[in-house]
Amino acid sequence: MFDHDGKNDERNDHGDAESLFFDLPDEVVEDEPDDEAAAPAAPAPAAEDDELLAAVSLEISADDRAAIERKGQMRWYVIHANTGHENKVKRNIEMAVKSNHMEDFFGEVLVATQDVTEMKNGKRSTVKRKFFPSYILVEMIMNKETHHFINSIPGVTRFIGGTPLKPEPISRDEVDRILGRIQAPEEARETLEIPYQVGDSVQVMDGPFTEWVGVINEINHDKGKLKVMISIFGSETPVELDFLQVKPV
Prior knowledge:
The structure is a single chain. This protein is an alpha+beta fold. It has 3 domains: 59 residues; 121 residues, Alpha-Beta Plaits; 48 residues, SH3 type barrels. It is 41% helix and 29% strand. It contains 7 helices and 12 strands. The strands form 3 sheets. The protein has a 5-stranded antiparallel sheet, with no helix packed on it. A 4-stranded antiparallel sheet has the order 2-5-1-6. A 3-stranded mixed sheet has the order 4-3-7. A hairpin with a 2-residue loop joins strand 3 and strand 4. It starts with a helix and ends with a strand.
């Protein structure tokens, strides 16, 4: 009996060891999933980015989208107007578009001008000068209604390009070139317009050669300089002068 009880005790001890052995993994298994579950949390910012992108896209309303699409359909056309009345015709077009509620079919209306520096009576002044006199640029969607609408504006004579019934827009390159001249910074687009030509006789008004008379041999528009041939001791000598230093004879 003693041996039997001893064997039972051994079994019990063995059984207790086995139960302990199997209990431990249960605790370990419970801890490990927590670590693994924490790892996949990293992609969360991506979901936040998606929400931000969705919010940005929602900021563009249906009306704004329609306006962008209409703008994409517009092309630039050139119309001929009565000489000297370009600005008046431009205003006529803008007022007619507004009063007839046709803003969906028209964009900008431009009279192409640039700043020009003139020399008059020895004084320099800057004025706006049309570099496409008698022409107006109109951004529009061309169809029968808008075609007739523009032709009915007082002061408009005709469309330029294409045929009278089917005008053609100007090319993208032409648009960029024209708009580039209009929108360029003032210092980049300002040009000098000088009332002199090579061969003109001028009198010097300032400097060591004051009151001397000479003939213009060369004009440098970029630097605003003249090269004048002046007779000094019987010899024709080139003298560089500013435009402001001379006056016509």
